[in-house]
Amino acid sequence: MKLNHILFFSFLSVLFNQVLTLNILGVFPYEGKSHFFVFAPYLKELARRGHNLTVVSYFPLEKPMENYHDISLSKDVKILEDAFPIKRSYWTIIQISFFLINSGTENCKTLLDDENVQNLWKSKQKFDLVVTEQFNSDCALGLAHALGAPVVGLTSCVIMPWHYETFGIQYNPAHVPILFLEGGTKPTLYQRIERTILHLYFVYLHKLTCRKENDKTLAKYFKDIPPVDELAQNVNMLLSYSHNSITGPGLLPPNVKEVGGYHVAKPKELPKDLKKFIDEAEHGVIYISFGSMLRATSTPKDKLEAIIGAISELPQRIVWKWEEKNLPGNPKNVFISNWLPQNDILAHPKVLAFYSHCGMLGTTEAIYHGVPMIGMPIFGDQPGNAGAIEESGLGVQIDIRHLTKELLLEKFKIVLNPEFRRKVKDLSRVWHDRPQSAMDSAIYWTEYTARTANYSFGTPAAKLPIYIFRSWDIIAVLGTICLAILISLKLVITFLYKKLSQKPKIKTN
Ligand SMILES: *[C@@H]1O[C@H](CO)[C@@H](O)[C@H](O)[C@H]1NC(C)=O
Ligand SMILES: *[C@@H]1O[C@H](CO)[C@@H](O)[C@H](O)[C@H]1NC(C)=O
């Protein structure tokens, strides 16, 4: 009996392994460090669970790992650390949009020009699945097509504007935030107009430049390749690095899953000096980090003075990620370092608040550990995230253009209130309450995609012509009918009126 059981289970596990061990190709042609930082734990976890990974990226592993094979693109490309202009204006948005389409065009060329990448299709290596970032360029989908593999798309932030149409998700400015702009889920009329224009700008700029260029590049390497537009519509599954509690609830088709949170690792012990500084903080600690957004060289002097002025008046100790040795005025309660273990700091029970630029990673770590935030967004998805945390109750937001010492102290007072913190702990509990952890869910949908590769779970909306998708033809038909009825009615009424108003005249005659 027992032996039977053992035999049965070993048979099952053999079967299981056979079914589940996948040969996976990861393609990450964008060189942004904060993006790959999200994907790395997921890729390693896939390898740890026995899948065979080949990963094309700018970030080869530092320590080799079983089942994980790198193809590095990082020969002579400078890694991007998100050092962008901090000024918030329409001009900055236009500059960044051009940066995105140019890098999307270049990344495609670099990817397909690489000899090791070319060997993948020349050697006819077989892959069960391609996982790839869906950000500024969908060029990797051409490679997946050539290899005949199903695709799981990944994002490291909210879904990009051009992917709304691709996945058949109707972008609705009435309640869906957009990159670069504020307004949360309750925008004003002005903000809705702003969103509509920016959305159309992004979608058409991307379609007419990046995608066109990617089509040309792909055509050089692959015969009879469908346009990127079409390849993108056929992506089997998109794992969006978001969660409705921090990006607002959206309407998503069955092949788009929210898996935000899988990058957060189990907290580790803090370095000795930092641990002592936090442990001994009588009134708790505030953690400040703007990633690499605000630097000593790029932060306006009056803004820096406002922040230092505010924190000097607080009884809490401050841990601040800052790349210089000192802060102007040398406030006593501050621990500065240019590198800090953010996740381990936020996990410490003495950390009471997080003052941040509201990047997706930091915001996710804050909700994970239940730490109230002050969000001071700079660009990208940060304004949207900041709006969402204010609505969900995870924190409050402050506009860098209006930053003063008094305003900042006011915001600190709000988030340091114990009642506010209690609600954030509740919110964190809700965030964690899912049928599966974010990582398990990401892995599940990845394996599911390989198992169900012959089926499509996308909405048919993705493939409809825009006039049908938006019901313009229906509006045109019904509008024409209404107009015809109105015109006929008018003619009839005029006719009757003439007839009737003539009658009395006859009588009086
Ligand atoms: C695993 O991936 C490596 C690198 O692409 C490849 O050389 C190897 O043949 C793969 N192993 C299996 C079992 O497919
Ligand atoms: C998909 O269909 C093809 C052709 O019928 C078959 O060979 C393949 O095994 C199927 N793939 C999966 C994942 O079921």
UniProtKB/TrEMBL annotation:
Q: Which InterPro entries does the record match to this protein?
A: UDP-glycosyltransferase (IPR050271), UDP_glucos_trans (IPR002213)
Please name the SUPFAM superfamilies in this protein's record: UDP-Glycosyltransferase/glycogen phosphorylase
Keywords (alphabetical) are: Glycosyltransferase, Membrane, Signal, Transferase, Transmembrane, Transmembrane helix
Question: Which superkingdom heads the taxonomic lineage of this protein's source?
Answer: Eukaryota
Select a single GO molecular function from the record's annotations and give it.
UDP-glycosyltransferase activity
Signal peptide start and end residues? 1-21
List residues traversing the bilayer.
474-497
What family is this protein classified in?
A: Belongs to the UDP-glycosyltransferase family.
What protein name applies here? UDP-glycosyltransferase UGT42C1
Gene behind the chain: UGT42C1
